[in-house]
Design brief:
The chain is an alpha+beta fold and about 90 residues long. The chain folds into 2 domains: about 5-40, 3-Layer(aba) Sandwich (YefM-like fold), CATH 3.40.1620.10; about 45-90, no CATH class. It has helices at about 10, 15-25, 45-65, 75-90, and strands spanning about 5, 30, 35-40. The longest helix has 25 residues, at about 45-65. The radius of gyration is 23 Å and the shape is elongated.
Length: about 90
């Protein structure tokens, strides 16, 4: 069940909200005038969500590239990289 609290609790009970977020690894939803306003969560959980969204974005881009024909066999890519490295070493 989501933890929903009035926004005044952020000011009055900051440590309690912080402890809840870190201990339970869940966000706290804050309301303002009875309506949803903010979500508070630990930095660790925020970074985890951000990383997951970035992974989804990259996967989506990969699928789009494949659909658009912008991919090639791995062996071709490796051969090209080896050739570029070889040419830079000369």
């Amino acid at each position: 069940m989501p933890n929903i609290r009035p926004s005044s609790d952020l000011r009055n009970n900051y440590n309690e909200i912080s402890d809840y977020c870190h201990t339970n690894r869940e966000p706290v939803f804050l309301t303002k005038n009875g309506h949803g306003d903010l979500v508070v969560l630990s930095i660790e959980d925020y970074e985890k969500i951000s990383d997951r969204l970035e992974l989804y974005r990259l996967l989506d881009q990969g699928i789009k590239d494949e659909t658009d024909g912008k991919v090639r066999p791995l062996d071709d890519a490796i051969s090209q990289l080896r050739e570029e490295i070889k040419n830079k070493a000369v």
